[in-house]
Design goal:
single chain; mainly alpha; 15 helices; globular; two-stranded antiparallel sheet; 307 residues
């Protein structure tokens, strides 16, 4: 069961049917995200409308290193922060959202992301992309092997910045050396995956040093790559099965940990949307409103300018 992803070329061609499907598929999860943060349903609807209009305006500059969901959630996050600032309800850091996840401006605005620093050295964008790729490969491989406890441990260490002791106690492992062993084997496998993909000297050198010296891999850089690229986020259909109560024990262990303890804001929004029994009725008016606004926007863009 694969999750639907929009055809970017159709969206860039302003295909009405493709944009309508986007609106039907994404309005609910975006609304759930904004509603949790603003505490006001009408404000959340306004944010969703602004988000999807922003997606139309910026689609020509879509960065293919991100998914479309990352793109629209990045815009939604920025619009939510703007709204909270206008209300002066609270202060939100520009570079980090309230869940402690790194900022999403690069996805939403196509702004250049500063190169990460690992142990005082600049990590090139190519190495960042390689890091994201091998982390994705490792997560997918671990999921297919059914090693969901191992996946929880590595997410806690890599994405959450947990200490070995905290991780050992949370998962009732033998002792801290058990956590260190899981981390050691993960680093070793990441080196192997990196070597298969390409030489990537900077990254391979870092991973080698981390493995040999049990070096902490949780520097801002790796944590940022993990969270920006949503390395371990389960596909929407897994969240749908959790909401329906049909998820088996292994996947449920990880998905619940990801939602309840790592508190991934994007997956929480997806789960809230899927668990909403009144979803269709609530979204009908919002989708119509968004569609009307999009039509007006595209119509205004097509009008010839008057000299």
């Amino acid at each position: 069961m694969a999750d639907w992803t929009p055809d970017i070329l159709k969206l860039q061609a302003r295909d009405d049917a493709e944009w309508l499907r986007v609106e039907k598929d994404f309005c609910g999860r975006l609304l759930a995200y904004a509603a949790r943060r603003t505490g006001d349903h009408q404000t959340a609807e306004d944010i969703v409308q602004e988000t999807l209009l922003g997606a139309v305006r910026g689609i020509d500059d879509f960065d293919t290193q991100y998914t479309f969901e990352q793109y629209v959630f990045g815009i939604c996050r920025n619009r939510t922060i703007d709204q909270l600032r206008r209300r002066k309800a609270r202060t939100v850091q520009v570079g980090e959202d309230e869940d402690g996840f790194p900022g999403m401006e690069a996805m939403a605005t196509n702004a250049e992301t500063p190169s990460a620093i690992i142990r005082g050295r600049e990590l090139s964008e190519r190495a960042r992309d390689l890091m994201a790729s091998i982390l994705h490969d490792w997560v997918e491989e671990t999921w297919e092997q059914g090693e969901f406890m191992r996946l929880c441990v590595i997410e806690a260490l890599f994405a959450g910045g947990w200490r070995n002791r905290d991780t050992w106690e949370r998962f009732e492992l033998r002792d801290e050396t058990a956590v260190a062993g899981i981390k050691f084997r993960a680093l070793k496998r990441l080196r192997q995956l990196a070597a298969v993909r390409e030489s990537g000297n900077d990254l391979l050198s870092f991973l080698s040093h981390a493995e040999e010296n049990d070096q902490r891999i949780l520097d801002l850089d790796v944590r940022r790559v993990w969270n920006e690229r949503r390395i371990s986020c389960p596909a929407r259909h897994w969240l749908a099965r959790l909401a329906a109560g049909s998820l088996t024990e292994g996947p449920e262990l990880f998905v619940r940990f990801h939602l309840e303890e790592m508190k991934c804001p994007w997956c929480i929004a997806n789960h809230d949307d899927l668990a909403n029994e009144d979803r269709e009725a609530e979204l009908r008016r919002l989708i119509e409103r968004v569609q009307e606004s999009r039509t007006q926007l595209l119509s205004s863009q097509e009008r010839p300018t008057q000299e």
